[in-house]
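Most newcomers find our protein records easier to grasp once they have seen one. A learned vocabulary of local backbone shapes supplies the integers on the structure line. Here is such a record, shown just as it appears in the course material:
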Amino acid sequence: MTDKKNNTKRPIAVAIIIFLVFTAADQASKYWAHHALLTDEFHEKTDQFPACASPDEEQARGRFVYLNSTPITVVEDLFTFRYVENCSNAFSLMKNVPEGFRFPFLLIISILACFFIPYMYLRTPVEHKYTLLALPFILSGALGNLLDRMIYRYVIDFVDWFVVMDGKPHHWPTFNVADVSIVVGIALMGLQILANPKRKKSAKQN
């Protein structure tokens, strides 16, 4: 009886809205990047250059993408929209892992995350409001990148931040809306961790 009562107090409607809005924004922005930031030649010849294959084929694909990209400058020497295909995970942390292991591993992890996060949401105490807000952000990011892997075999990134120092640009790893969603979720969970000690201290004083 108590569990049912607690479930009704969860901000489920808010969680659904967050999930749907950020998932839609992620997929729409990637669709835009795939068409606005690439030349017509890319779409005509893309099948000739396998994506996320052998190291040599990946290099050839990378050159092909680079030569046929049409970046859009948002803020000079700071922020650009640039199309990039990411065969690894967030911020290219598994870039050097063989594709034969990398692709199925990331696919399985993403699928498991999409099932585990809703379960975690239902098990999270109602008073952990930041966590309940964080989980739909993380779920949206996980699903957004999972859809890319299932459709293209790679994740579409296009947000390029960099700073120019001594005439040389230093780039942050290119990312997308799904990555932003995951980072927002992690930040909210961090707020929850910071908030808990204060709540416990207040309870002891009372």
User: Anything to note?
Assistant: The first strand starts at residue 72 and ends at 75.
